[in-house]
Design a protein that fits this description.
alpha/beta, 4 domains, 6-stranded parallel sheet, 29 helices, binds Broken Fe4S4 cluster, binds iron/sulfur cluster
C-alpha cells in the first residue's frame, strides 16, 4: 500500500493504476519508474543548443573546487555554468510564453471572426465585459454597435502579438508603482511574439552570456505571457463564451457513465469544446446514441479545457493531468478529443488496449496513431457533430472489461475576478473592499495562489493537499487554477462546508458569511491572469500598500511539470509575488543563478522564487512571507487583536 500511495493519494487513480497493470496497459506512473530523470539535465547543467556539445558542466559533489577546475568547468565554447543554467531557464520561459501566446492569438483571431459574424454559432455573450474592455483599451463606445466595438478590440488585441515597439496595452492595468519598476528595469514587453523571438535569440549560442542579463530579460518575456497572451485569452474568451460565475459540478473518474457514450475533451483551447457542449445536447444525436444502445451522451473534461468548460457550463471533470490515460483504462471511454498542450502521446498506446478513439482536432497538434478530425471554426457545429458522431459509433465497440471508479466529488467553481468582486461587494458596489478589510482586521491572514500541474516525480495530488490544508488552516484564502484546482476539488475543499471543517476560525467566518469555499477555483492556467487582476484590484482598493509586492500574498506550484509553469512563475515573481515551486527546480545545479532567482530578484522586483519540495515547509514559507508583509504594512497587530474577538472565541470553542 505504501508503494501505491507513493504514486497518488487519489483512490480513483490508484484503482485504475491497478486495472491498467492487470490489462497490460502502459500509463505514466509506470513510465516514470522505468524512465528515470537525467540528473545533469534536471539541475540545469547540460547545454545542447549547438553541435559542439552537448556540454555537461555539473559542479563536483562533495569536494571543494580549485580555481583552475572552476575555469575548466565550461562548455566547448567557454560558456560558464551560469550562462548555461540561465539560458536553459529562459528557454523554458520562452516556450511557456509561446504556448500561452499562441493560445491567446488563436482566441484573438477567433474573437475577430465572431465579431464580424464569420463564426456561425458563436456570439458575444458578455456585453458588459466587452464595454469594460473597450474603456480599458480606449476604444470609442459612443453610439457604436457592439459588433463595431468588438472588431476594434479584436484588431487591437491581434496587434499585440506582432507589435514592434511601445508597451503591451494590459500593462497599464498594473499598479503605477509596478509599472515604474518594470520601466526602470527595462522589462516592459513590447510585442508578445517579439519577446519570445528575442528570448530565443538571446539564448542562441554565443549571444547573451551574462546570467543576470538573461534572467532579467526573461522577466520581460514572462510578463508578455501573464499581462499579454494569457490575459488576452482570458478576457476575450470571457466575452465570447461568458464570464464565469459560481457553478456546481462534480469531479473525478466517477463522472464517467456506465450506460452512456462517454466523451472527454482535453487540452487548453475552449472554442471546440464550447461547441461540443452544445452538440452533445442535440436531440438528433442523443437519439442516434440510443440507436446504438446507449442511454445518452456524457461529456466530461480533462486538464484545462475541462477547467474552461467547468467554469462556464459546469461540465464535470474526469480528472487532472496524470489521470488522462486512466480515463481510457476504465474501458468506458468512447473518445478522448484533444486540442493543444499537456496531451500525453502515451494516450495512443493506452488506447490500443481498449476501444477508445484518440481524436486530435488542432492543425498544430497531431499525434501519430490518433484520428485527426480538424475543427473548423467557420463550420463549428458540423465539425463538432462529426466528432460526437464518431464517438457514438464507437459505443458498440465497448468491451466487457469496464470498471468506472465510484469516486466523484461535488465542487463549486466559477470564481472569476468579476465574480469575486460581486460576491464580496454586492452587485451595485462590486469591490475588493471587504476582502481588504478582512485582511486588515486579520480574519483573513493573506491570499495564496496554488497552481500548476501534476508530476509523477511526486505523489499525485499529495503536495497540493498538504499545502492547501496548511494554508487555509492558518486563515490564508487560497485561489487555484489548472490541475491543482482539480486536486483540491477532488479532495472536497471546493465546497462551502469545507470552510468549517478545514479553515482557521477567521477565514471560516468570512467564508460562511459570504457563502464561499475557502479554496476558490479561478480557472485554467491562462486564468492566472485573473489572479494578476485580483492582486491589482486589492492594491487599488487601498489599505494594503501601493504595489503588488506590498500585499500579504504568495504563490506556489507544488507539483509543476510544464514549461508554462516556469513562465507563470517568472511573471508572478516579476509582478512582485513570492513564488515557491515544489518537486524539482531547473537551476539547482548552479548557486549563482539560483541566488539571483531566490534572493536578488526580491531587491529588483519585490518578488522572488523559492524551491521547497516539502509541501508543509513550503506552505510555512508562504505564511512567513505573508506575515512579513503584514508586519511591513503595520497590520500584524490587528491580527493579534482578532484572537480576542467574541465570535472568534465562540468558533474556537
Ligand atoms: Fe556546448 Fe557552448 Fe554549444 Fe552549449 S553553446 S552546446 S555550451 S559549445
Ligand atoms: S493543464 S499546464 S498540466 S496545470 Fe493547464 Fe494541468 Fe499544468 Fe497542463
Amino acid at each position: 500500500m505504501a508503494e501505491k500511495e507513493a504514486k497518488s493519494i487519489d483512490l480513483a487513480t490508484l484503482e485504475m493504476i491497478d486495472k491498467a497493470a492487470q490489462d497490460g496497459a502502459h500509463v505514466v506512473f509506470e513510465r516514470a519508474e522505468t524512465t528515470r530523470p537525467c540528473p545533469i539535465g534536471a539541475e540545469g547543467s547540460c547545454c545542447s543548443i549547438c553541435a559542439m556539445g552537448p556540454c555537461r558542466v555539473m559542479a563536483p559533489k562533495g569536494k571543494q573546487e580549485t580555481l583552475e577546475d572552476r575555469r575548466r568547468r565550461v562548455g566547448v565554447c567557454g560558456a560558464t555554468p551560469e550562462t548555461i543554467s540561465a539560458r536553459n531557464f529562459v528557454r523554458k520561459i520562452a516556450a511557456g510564453t509561446a504556448s500561452h501566446g499562441d493560445h491567446g492569438r488563436v482566441v484573438a483571431k477567433f474573437f475577430l471572426a465572431v465579431a464580424k459574424g464569420e463564426a456561425p454559432g458563436y456570439e458575444i455573450k458578455d456585453e458588459q465585459k466587452l464595454l469594460q474592455l473597450a474603456l480599458d483599451l480606449g476604444v470609442t463606445i459612443g453610439d457604436r454597435s457592439n459588433k463595431d466595438i468588438a472588431v476594434d478590440i479584436g484588431n487591437l488585441m491581434i496587434n499585440e502579438f506582432g507589435k514592434q515597439e511601445g508597451e503591451l496595452l494590459f500593462l497599464r492595468r498594473a499598479p503605477l508603482k509596478r509599472q515604474e519598476i518594470w520601466r526602470k528595469n527595462g522589462v516592459m514587453p513590447r510585442g508578445i511574439d517579439m519577446e519570445v523571438a528575442e528570448a530565443m535569440h538571446r539564448t542562441h549560442m554565443g549571444t547573451d552570456q551574462d546570467y543576470r542579463d538573461l534572467l532579467t530579460a526573461g522577466v520581460r518575456t514572462a510578463l508578455a505571457d501573464g499581462w499579454g497572451g494569457s490575459m488576452i485569452a482570458t478576457e476575450l474568451q470571457d466575452i465570447i463564451f461568458g464570464t464565469p460565475a459560481p457553478v456546481l459540478s462534480s469531479i473525478n473518474l466517477g463522472v464517467l457513465a456506465e450506460d452512456k457514450v462517454n466523451i472527454i475533451i482535453h487540452g487548453h483551447e475552449p472554442s471546440l469544446a464550447e461547441m461540443m457542449a452544445t452538440v452533445c445536447q442535440d436531440p438528433e444525436l442523443i437519439e442516434y446514441a440510443k440507436t446504438k444502445g446507449a442511454k445518452g451522451i456524457n461529456l466530461a473534461g480533462m486538464c484545462c479545457t475541462a477547467n474552461e468548460m467547468l467554469m462556464r457550463h459546469g461540465v464535470p471533470i474526469a480528472g487532472n493531468f496524470l489521470q488522462q490515460e486512466l480515463a481510457i483504462v476504465t474501458g468506458a471511454l468512447e473518445a478522448i478529443v484533444v486540442d493543444v498542450q499537456c496531451i500525453m502521446q502515451g494516450l495512443v498506446d493506452t488506447a490500443s488496449c481498449y476501444h477508445t478513439k484518440v481524436i486530435t482536432t488542432d492543425a498544430r497538434a497531431k499525434i501519430q496513431g490518433a484520428t485527426h478530425m480538424p475543427f473548423e471554426e467557420h463550420n463549428a457545429y458540423e465539425s463538432a457533430k462529426a466528432i460526437v458522431k464518431a464517438a457514438i459509433d464507437n459505443y458498440v465497440n465497448r468491451g466487457k472489461n469496464v470498471r468506472i471508479p465510484k469516486y466523484k466529488q461535488d465542487m463549486i467553481a466559477g470564481f472569476s475576478h468579476e465574480t469575486i468582486n460581486y460576491l464580496l461587494g454586492g452587485m451595485f458596489r462590486a469591490s475588493y473592499r471587504p476582502l481588504n478589510d478582512n485582511i486588515i482586521n486579520g480574519r483573513i491572514r493573506g491570499v495564496a495562489a496554488v497552481v500548476g500541474c501534476n508530476n509523477p516525480r511526486t505523489p499525485h495530488d499529495a503536495s497540493n493537499l498538504i499545502m492547501v490544508k496548511e494554508l487555509i488552516k492558518n486563515d490564508v484564502l487560497v485561489v487555484q487554477t489548472g490541475c491543482m484546482a482539480m486536486a483540491s476539488g477532488k479532495a472536497g475543499l471546493m465546497v462551502p462546508e469545507a470552510a468549517k471543517e478545514f479553515a482557521g476560525p477567521g477565514l471560516a467566518s468570512v467564508c460562511e458569511a459570504v457563502g464561499i469555499p475557502p479554496v476558490l477555483h479561478v480557472g485554467a492556467c491562462i486564468d492566472n491572469s485573473r489572479i494578476l487582476m485580483s492582486t491589482t484590484a486589492m492594491v487599488k482598493d487601498g489599505g494594503l500598500g501601493d504595489d503588488i509586492s506590498d500585499l500579504p500574498v504568495a504563490a506556489a506550484a507544488p507539483e509543476w511539470m510544464s514549461e508554462k509553469a516556469i513562465a507563470i512563475g517568472q511573471y508572478a515573481v516579476g509582478s512582485g509575488v513570492f513564488t515557491v515551486f515544489g518537486c524539482n527546480f531547473p537551476t539547482t545545479g548552479n548557486k549563482e543563478v539560483s541566488d539571483f532567482l531566490f534572493k536578488e530578484m526580491e531587491e529588483i522586483f519585490g518578488g522572488m522564487w523559492a524551491f521547497e519540495p516539502d509541501p508543509l515547509k513550503a506552505a510555512q514559507l508562504m505564511i512567513a512571507h505573508i506575515d512579513k508583509k503584514r508586519k511591513a504594512l503595520g497590520i500584524d497587530k490587528a491580527r493579534e487583536r482578532v484572537l480576542y474577538d467574541m465570535a472568534m472565541r465562540r468558533a474556537l470553542e
